[in-house]
Specification:
By secondary structure, this protein is of the alpha+beta class. It contains 13 helices and 18 strands. The longest helix is centred in the last third of the chain and has 29 residues. The two termini are 24 Å apart.
Length: 376
């Protein structure tokens, strides 16, 4: 998503862009996404905010519960909208990708082509080889994910991504399901179950477990039912409305050691390639969208590409790495917390927290205002 957003932003400020995607068929893998206000604002700056709003559901009600259904903290989405001027929105990832692809220039997206070489002999004109083609570019944007090969090439001594200690199973229900809130999290001991409602009434759910990397189950849905099927409503109904083949299973990885820079020469790292974080704040995709808008604005506003990349790194690296640290802390106090005494203490603290504490916690990360994207 970050790569598509960057392509839209760069085109918007006057650059010609080629997006290279190794997948031959865009099957839109992935379940759903909850976009905080900063992500919606970034999409507005890219000119696709209205289309995303039309395809998404506002998240106005919800909160955090115990496995038996006891309320720990309430989320007031309406208060957040009033404070931020933008909603929290739930949307299938496939729909969001479709909106972003539709905003690309015709022919800009090349599929089924893997980058096979990056020639940096001329620092001002890196050359990229893919699918039998070589292009010389003013700038290469590396948005190749948490396992980025280009990141390893640019920063060979930096530690790569590591397993966070958690694994996630997720799916979208086959049919609409009546749920009590638009967005909800349930915290157990070393486990989390969450759901978000889509505009068509279907629901995305995710189940996060403390587990070593590489653990897989012969029947993932049966395992989720075993672990979460006795938790409060509507969790059993969500699992009953899910097809076994719809369940996706991924280990959660992160860049625990921050990079020294998001830039090397005329190559800019973006999204998970630059700052892969755990999902506990729901900010990973939003930070990638912020990257895309900030990079485009810097290139439009600075006198040279080198100056623009310096500005991009200076503006994005401190914020994205700060959010990544906060997400890691949130996981340790949320889903990853397993000791019964610690879980009980956390739950008591949440129940005693003053009204509005959840809103203030979300505002801390979502109150970001994008720069204007003026053509060069």
């Amino acid at each position: 998503m970050g790569g598509l957003a960057a392509a839209i932003g760069l085109r918007r400020v006057g650059f010609g862009v080629t997006v290279v995607e190794r997948a031959r068929v865009l099957d839109d893998a992935g379940a759903g996404i909850s976009l905080a206000a900063n992500g919606i604002r970034a999409l507005d700056a890219l000119g696709v905010g209205d289309a995303v709003r039309a395809a998404s559901a506002r998240q106005l009600t919800g909160g955090t519960r115990t496995p038996r259904g006891g309320l720990l903290a309430e989320m007031d989405g309406a208060a957040l909208e009033r404070a931020l001027g933008a909603p929290i929105a739930g949307i299938p990832r496939s729909d969001l990708h479709a909106v972003l692809r539709a905003a690309l220039a015709p022919g800009a997206l090349v599929t089924g082509a893997e980058v096979t070489a990056l020639d940096l002999a001329d620092p001002a004109r890196p050359r990229v080889a893919f699918g039998g083609t070589t292009l010389a570019a003013d700038l290469v944007v590396a948005a190749d994910g948490v396992g980025s090969r280009l990141r390893g090439r640019l920063f060979p001594t930096a530690p790569g991504h590591v397993h966070s200690g958690s694994t996630v199973l997720r799916a979208i229900t086959e049919r609409p399901v009546e749920v009590g809130g638009d967005f909800e999290l349930t915290w157990g001991r070393g486990a989390e179950f969450g759901h978000l409602r889509f505009a068509d009434g279907r629901v995305e759910w995710h189940a996060v477990l403390n587990a070593p990397a590489g653990v897989r189950y012969p029947d993932p849905l049966a395992e989720v039912r075993r672990r979460f099927g006795h938790w409060h409503d509507p969790i059993p109904a969500l699992l009953a409305a899910t097809a076994p083949k719809a369940v996706l299973h991924h280990d959660i990885a992160e860049l625990r050691t921050p990079l020294p820079s998001f830039v090397s020469g005329r190559v800019a790292l973006l999204g998970d390639a630059a700052h892969a974080m755990t999902p506990h704040l729901g900010q990973g995709d939003c930070q990638a969208l912020e990257d895309a808008v900030t990079l485009a604005a810097a290139l439009a506003g600075e006198p040279s590409i080198d100056a623009a990349l310096h500005r991009y790194d200076a503006e994005r690296r401190p914020r994205a790495q700060s959010v990544a640290r906060a997400a890691r802390r949130a996981g340790r106090m949320g889903e990853q917390l397993a000791h019964p005494v610690a879980v009980a203490a956390r739950n008591a603290a949440l129940r005693l927290a003053p009204a509005g504490a959840t809103v203030r916690a979300i505002l801390r990360h979502a109150a970001w205002v994008p720069p204007r994207l003026d053509p060069r």
